[in-house]
Amino acid sequence: YYFHILNSNSFHSIQLIVFSVIVWAFWQMLNSFCKSIWQYVLVFISVLILSFISISLNQLLVIILGAVFGLVMAKFSSPFRENKPASNSSTIHSSYIRPRHAPYWFIAFLLPFFLIPLLVKSGSWPELAFFADFYQTGSLVFGGGHVILPLLHQDFVATNLLSPQSFDLGYAFAQLMPGPLFSFASYVGALLPWTGSSWINALLATCAIFLPSFFLIFATLPYWSWLMQQRIIFQAVSGINAAVVGLLLYLLIDLSQAYFRSWSDLVFVIVMILLLRSKLPVWFSLIAGFILYQSYLNVVSF
Question: Sign of the CA dihedral 122, 126, 131, 136?
């Protein structure tokens, strides 16, 4: 319905707003996760890998590389400071999840990575291919919800299952909604050629992208205090966080080539970033930016 009431200028404004939000998210993640020179180098290497290695698992490769890179650099980094757990943390953990059940939850987390591809290749459940894509995306999110953008973009936009315009429009709407950015997966699922009902598609996509988080919570919560004190885990996550910043930067480079038409587009993106940086509500900044630039484009076109 929305595609019939929005013209090309409207779509272009939405694309630039989406680009601005991703730039702002990238800048926040860069400042939060990149504290050392090796992390900036890893961001650059991640972009190079994504640019020159065109395989379906290149994003997974980048995340694994980030973990390995972080472990290697652990030898040259400053001493690790242990996080002392809260005094009542063990009570909280044992009250809800028993430690002996944790391995079973971790097995449940791993099984879909092996079982679903087998079922899809056998031809028994070809519809599970989309479920696997969302499940993998939910499993690879590190550092923030915006990481799902490059993952979903590669799975569905790069494969022509979803148009770039539909992807951008849904992301813009997701920014106006309360709650986690994972809700964007519900929108994406509803548009896929999955089942005969868009509502069922949205429900399946939502379950698939949230499911690995629940499995991991149940698997790790009894040992959370111990895990947070392990240097090897801390360094691996530090590398992964830098790698996913590279994922987001690569997406920005890719989108900039398609979105920017004139110098006014760049000016508008800068203005939008300043609005997002201000204390104004995000929804107000997005709507105000859209109305202003849409008016400008209509005047120029006229």
Answer: positive
How far are the Cα atoms of 49, 173, 174, 258 from residue 288, in angstroms, in the given order?
Answer: 38, 14, 16, 23
**What is the DSSP annotation of 157-195?**
ITTTSS-HHHHHHHHHHHHHSSS-TTHHHHHHHHHSSSS
| Of the candidates 266, 272, 270, 263, the residue with the CA atom closest to the CA atom of residue 290 | 272
Residue 198: CA count within 13 A, CB half-sphere: 4
Cα–Cα distances in Å, from 64 out to 67, 134, 220? 5, 19, 20
Contact 4, 233 (CB under 8 A): no
Q: In angstroms, rounded to a whole number, what is the distance separating the alpha carbons of residues 147 and 211?
A: 17
Neighbouring C-beta atoms of residue 132, cutoff 10 Å: 18
Calculate mean pLDDT across residues 52-60. Answer: 79
Residue 85 or residue 176, greater confidence: 176
Task: Tell me which of 180 and 82 has the higher pLDDT.
Answer: 180
Q: How many residues does the chain have?
A: 302
pLDDT in tens, 227-248: 777 888 888 889 999 999 999 9
3-state class (DSSP) for residue 65: helix
Tokens for 222, please give them: 């009894």
pLDDT class for 302, splitting at 50, 70, 90? low
- Predicted TM-score (pTM) of this structure: 0.77
